[in-house]
Design a protein that fits this description.
CATH topology: Rossmann fold
CATH architecture: 3-Layer(aba) Sandwich
Helix content: 25-40%
Strand content: 15-25%
Radius of gyration: 16 Å
Distance between the termini: 7 Å
Order of helices and strands: EHEHEHEHEEHEHEH
Oligomer: single chain
Number of helices: 7
Number of domains: 1
Largest sheet: 6 strands, parallel
Low-confidence stretches: none
Structural class: alpha/beta
Mean pLDDT: 95
CATH class: Alpha Beta
Amino acid sequence: MMSNLLFIHGFNSSPLSKKAQQTQKYIQKYLPEVRFHCPQLATNPKDAINQLEQYLKASPAEHWALIGSSLGGYFSTYLSENYNLKAVLVNPAIKPYELLSGYEGEQINPYTQESYKVEKRYLDDLIAIEKPHIAKNNYMVMVQTGDEVLNYQEAVDKFQDSHLIVQPNGDHSFVNYEKMLPKIVEFLQLTA
């Protein structure tokens, strides 16, 4: 059975983000038989979820695993629960609709230069896909206490019964992420 890894980037990010690039290079080097997917997500949450689900529905019999960073962690939780997939969440957003309420208005993605608006509907779409109850064995959650964007304790509280890695200091980018890739691949059971 073919293995697929779907990397889901965060808010105002892209497949060109450092973590996405590090993951892709690691997979190409050590697991060339695994298909790596990291689409540029639509800026609207509902469209982004539809886009991600198209990947899963295109090859439902294949093995799929998820890595989600920040807002991508929130999307990964939704997909993991709906499709019973293993997911690694990196400094995941737990209540992005609260955080992003402070970002309402015009946004420009620094990678793509795409301009879009965060409006009430955007926040409502995030609330609509929230998964308050989780299958604890499907997750490895990696947080750093120095995350300057998100409160890492929210992730610790929600995923306390999952495989949880809490590192002191660090930041929202997850310092030394690339050193965690062997553990990530092992947890996700990525093989040929």
